[in-house]
């Protein structure tokens, strides 16, 4: 199915398939499998069975399913699977607004809508580009590992800021944030790379969060408490402002 064009009129031939395992996780899964087999060979059942289940969990954590990315110039797609935990008006991080000497401008230094997506250990942890364009910044910041569901995690935790600029000058900044269990942010891209919307940009190991800073004059199309899917769920449409209310049921 990869690369196949589908639409909302029924075009496209699709079917369910097992998701692939990202190479970053295969080594961890194989290590767990090896320990399980060794323990089974030595008749250490109390070790063999837990390690067998752990290996399945590791492979599941690093699964990398295909996604159908909406092809709409106005659309900002979710960069992460997970729960929309916070939506707030904030000023973007200094790393995304300051002059970094590269000759390219950052985000405007004014309040914008930030959508925070919390990823549990059960979610897919491959992060994707919310728009197509050129990677202008990739800034890694060491920090703490407090609960990624807390608002202060945006400023205190280990994190990585990414800025993508479209050809028309529209820029989107988003931040990968490590959490209580997460201990490494792994980038797949570098400044200067040109990406399509929904392209894989990196992952965060074992539970984390992604903050997305929408352009000025753009409201979120998702609600607090909503589950979103990386590369598929439309978080916002550029330039659209509208109150959307929901009822949890």
Outline the structure in words.
- Strands 11-7-8-9-13-5-4-14 form an eight-stranded antiparallel beta sheet. Strands 6-12-10 form a three-stranded antiparallel beta sheet, with no helix packed on it. It has a two-stranded antiparallel ribbon with strand order 1-2.
- The chain has helices at 23-41, 45-61, 94-97, 153-156; strands at residues 20-21, 63-64, 75-77, 82-90, 112-119, 126-128, 133-141, 159-165, 171-178, 185-187, 194-195, 200-204, 208-213, 227-228, 234-237.
- The chain is of the alpha+beta class and 249 residues long.
- The model has no long low-confidence stretch (mean pLDDT 87).
- The longest helix has 19 residues, at 23-41.
- The two termini are 34 Å apart.
- Heterodimer of a large membrane-associated beta subunit and a small pyruvoyl-containing alpha subunit.
- Its main location: membrane.
- It catalyses: a 1,2-diacyl-sn-glycero-3-phospho-L-serine + H(+) = a 1,2-diacyl-sn-glycero-3-phosphoethanolamine + CO2.
CATH architecture of the largest domain: Distorted Sandwich
Distance between the termini: 34 Å
Strand content: 25-35%
The CATH class of the largest domain turns out to be: Mainly Beta
Helix content: 10-25%
| Largest beta-sheet characterization | 8 strands, antiparallel
Structural class: alpha+beta
How confident overall, as mean pLDDT? 87
- CATH level-3 fold name of the largest domain: Glucose Permease (Domain IIA)
Q: Which overall shape is indicated by the principal axes computed on the Cα atoms?
A: globular
Q: What is the string of helix and strand elements? A: EHHEEEHEEEHEEEEEEEE
Compute the number of structural domains. Answer: 2
Spans with pLDDT under 50 lasting ≥5 residues?
A: none
Cα-based radius of gyration, to the nearest Å: 19 Å
Q: Counting H and I runs of at least 4 residues, what is the number of helices?
A: 4
